[in-house]
Amino acid sequence: MTEKNKQLTIGQFAAMHGINKKTLMWYDEIGLLKPAAINPENGYRCYNYHQSPVLETILLLRELDVPVREIQDFMKNRSAEKMKHLLEEKIADLDHNLKHLQAIRKTLCNYHQNMETLLTMDLSKISIIEKEERCLITVAITPDTSFEEEVEMITAETEKYQLGRLHDASYGSMLPVSSLQCGRFDDYCKLFIEIPFGNAAAPQEMAPKNGLHIQPGGKYLRAFHQGGWDKIPKRYQEILDYAKRRHLTLCGFSYEMGINENVIDRIEDYIVQIEIPVMPAQHKIAD
User: Distance between CA 32 and CA 20 in Å, rounded?
Assistant: First the structure.
């Protein structure tokens, strides 16, 4: 106990808490943390062990970006109840920031994957891939929906689900397979935005409740199209012919998404990724 009552120099106390002694001098000047004593011989500030928890509380609040004035008010009238309330607020803020950082990380990973695909892809190739189930926000469109109306609807949905900016999520368009099979290659019915966080745990449970669309997991036929949309019907016909030759049954929707928008300037270089679910063999309708 005698050691705990021993006074520490400002340098020792600062070093013990991993801060600069100028910080302690500033805290003294603004009345946030006064030294335990002032050496009468040289005027040096001295601190004691019992001030450590007080300093650690101040440093914690500073790390949480609590303004100095709020910390001053809190330290003058601190209590367990006030500390609990303050920590609850900061935990909520951290949770929000973590979700945002997770969304940014996922976006960066998506961009990285797209760039890797661009560098290794064969545009003529059609392949079968595996995809995980995911939740999509969708808005209904028709051939008569104007670009301005699409922008307004997408903006409203991003605000509704607090997605922030479009870079926080993958987005694209949907075309019914039934329309493709009838040769209606421009029969787009929905725009989609992928929910980047928060709903991955139980998408099947929450999708109906929130009006979300489930993009099913499983096998997908994947192809790419480069250039303007006027040539995309030809690419879809190639996809349908490929599926027919391999006795693949396509179902649901075709999901289209641009993968190189952030690295091109000309529409001729624009690449659309096309992914269409392949119905599992046991679910196929007998000929």
Answer: 16
Tell me the C-alpha distance between 197 and 168, whole Å. Answer: 10
CB 278 within 8 A of CB 257: no
Among residues 172, 198, 177, 202, the alpha carbon closest in space to that of 187 is found at: 177
Q: Per-residue b/e over 242-260, b at no fewer than 16 CB within 10 Å?
A: ebeeeebebbbbbbbbbbb
User: Which amino acid does the sequence have at 205?
Assistant: E
Q: Tokens representing 215?
A: 């993009």
Per-residue DSSP letter, 250: B
Q: Are 19 and 11 in contact (CB under 8 A)?
A: no
For the beta carbon of residue 155, count every other beta carbon within 10 angstroms.
Answer: 11
Give the integer Cα–Cα distance in Å for 17 and 260: 49
- Amino acid 90 reads K
Q: Which two tokens stand for residue 277?
A: 């679910």
Place of tokens 């019992």: 50
Over residues 47-63, the pLDDT tens digits come to: 998 899 999 999 999 99
254-260-264-269 Cα dihedral, nearest 10 degrees: -50
Answer for the pair 102, 196: CB distance below 8 angstroms, yes or no.
yes
* Long-range interactions of 44-49: CB distance < 8 A, separation 24+: 44/9, 44/10, 45/9, 45/10, 46/7, 46/8, 46/9, 46/10, 47/7, 47/8, 47/9, 47/10, 47/12, 47/13, 48/4, 48/5, 48/6, 48/7, 48/8, 49/3, 49/4, 49/5, 49/6, 49/8
Q: Which long-range contacts (CB under 8 A, 24 or more apart) does 228-232 make?
A: 228/267, 228/268, 228/270, 229/186, 232/185, 232/272
pLDDT in tens, 122-181: 889 999 999 999 889 999 999 899 988 988 888 888 778 766 555 556 789 999 999 999
CA-to-CA distance for 243 and 162, rounded, in angstroms? Answer: 39
Neighbours of 74 (CB within 10 A): 17
**pTM > 0.85: yes or no:** no
